Amino acid sequence: MSLREYFKKMKGSTKGSPPRVSNDEIFWSWIGAFLGISAVAGLNRLYFDGTDLSLMIGSLGASSVLIYGAIRSPLAQPRNLMGGHFLSAIIGVTCWKLFHAHPWLAESMAVATSIAVMHATKTLHPPAAATALIAVAGSPAIHHAGYLYVIVPATISPLVLLIVALLVNNIPASRRYPEIWF
Amino acid sequence: MMHEDDETELTDGDILDAMQHIPGYLDISTEDFRSIYHLAHRHAVERLFRGITAGRLMRTGIVPLQTAMTLDKAAHHLAGSGYKGLPVVDAEGIVVGMLTETDFMKRLNARNFMELLLKLLDDMYEFTHRCHETLVSDAMTQPIVTIDRNAGFTDIMKRFDSHPGRSMPVVDMDGRLLGLLLRKDFIAAYKPRNTDESA
Questions:
Q1: Cβ contacts (< 8 Å) between B19 and chain A: which residues?
Q2: Domain B54-195: which CATH class?
Q3: Residue A110 to residues A54, B129, B144: CA-CA distances in angstroms?
Q4: Between chains, do A16 and B12 touch, taking CB under 8 Å as contact?
């Protein structure tokens, strides 16, 4: 590959990005995300208020984009949602335990390894890399929780989002979820 | 890879239009879609035409004509074979030509069957004389268009397209006769049956 070709690649190859979705689609994405995050927030308040644990983490917002806003995407399927968060959480906690003396190494190892493992296990789910990063770069409470982080929030919260996605995404005639379970 | 020339190139507009018919956000770029389309198309074409080779479709048990035969003897052979043309081989068994009904008519200066019939009625002597005197090698169609036994769909198509004959001799690497590929057998071999993956 010549230098010219290398830079030419940066121009991109496509003229148009995918078309804007219909207003109906926007409406149902909004409803799904609203109900999904509400459900997680509600459960968090009911069961984890006043404890060191929390169901609410930033990566759930990103997961919501996929499972309520791009539901046909392979990245948004249950295997990816659940598997991605679960495996990345394990990797995140492990990286903290092994490398916490060097935060930069723990952080980059967590994200890079979770991407590799998700690729290898066909569970690629972009928001899950944030779950791994939060395990390392998050609050002292999260560090203190250790592998419990894998269950709360990294398994329970995506599970709540998944249940809401199944209930909401199958209401409109134009939507069906999931495409593939496993 | 077959048929790549015939493959329709999709524009970004085509793909975006298709995407608009599918509700929901599709996280695929038009370029990726195009790549998938081309690869899938190639796969489909190979599936549809898999198994179409000259060797599999040819008729075997063909008794060829010899270059040194006279036309009247060749005519009897041809009539007995049930084919409208037969391959001609030299002393070594190498295919050197085809002798067809059309070659007979050309030889007798007739453009079609009716003309031949009328000429025959007019001048029986001329007809028999010509057939006695002429050798197969002088009347046969040359240069010969043959096809390799392993030739696939595209090759066969190109060969049939390159000459007006209704059949082609199938030959081995040395040019020796293996069988006769009829155009009608080739056409009959393509059926949409192969749309099933398991076929």
A1: 18-19
A2: alpha beta
A3: 21, 96, 70
A4: yes
